[in-house]
Amino acid sequence: MDTVDRERRHAVMARVRTSGTEPELRVRSIVRSLGIAYRLNVKKLPGKPDIAFPRLKKAILVHGCFWHQHPGCPAAKRPSTNIEFWNAKLDENIARDIRKYENLGAQGWSHLIIWECQIKDEARLLTIITDFLSK
Ligand SMILES: [Zn+2]
């Protein structure tokens, strides 16, 4: 196993473990500032969306770029070791996400995915969220 790859993966995992929530918290604080009623981790909805707006039937999913394989994102680059393991695991995540979106849609909910790498630009994030909620 090559060292760079291993270290990179550890860094990714550490970020996922400790935060998982940090990008979510950033998104939540923006949503809170909009003054629209929302609920967190609604269990009865497919995939327990991170943030749900029951009256609007809209959900926001905050996704880590690696685990959810953000298309075209450098952070989604697959490890070059244990290739079969990672391909199976990540493909499974993608398939699960797709089912989740379909199930939400089937219940009349629309969704917005916010990728971890989009969190940095708060002004843009605000625009994305406002657009989604006002549609
Ligand atoms: Zn990304």
Report what the structure shows.
The chain is an alpha+beta fold. It has a four-stranded mixed sheet, with helices on both faces. Helices cover 49% and strands 13% of the residues. It is globular. Helix 2 crosses helix 4. Helix 3 links the parallel strand 3 and strand 4. Bound molecules: zinc ion. Zinc ion (ZN) binds next to loops.
In brief:
This protein is an alpha+beta fold. The chain is built from four helices and four strands. Strand 3 (58-63), helix 3 (83-106) and strand 4 form a beta-alpha-beta unit.
Helix percentage range = 40-55%
Structural class: alpha+beta
The mean pLDDT is 88
What is the straight-line distance between the termini?
Answer: 48 Å
What string, H for helix and E for strand, traces the elements in order? HHEEEHEH
* Lateral strand order in the biggest sheet: 1-2-3-4
Give structural attributes.
alpha+beta; 49% helix; four-stranded mixed sheet; 135 residues; globular; single chain; 13% strand; binds zinc ion
Topology:
Blueprint: H1 3-18, H2 22-34, E1 39-40, E2 51-53, E3 58-63, H3 83-106, E4 110-115, H4 122-134
Parallel strand pairs: 3-4
Antiparallel strand pairs: 1-2, 2-3
Helix pairs in contact: 2-4
The protein binds zinc ion (ZN).
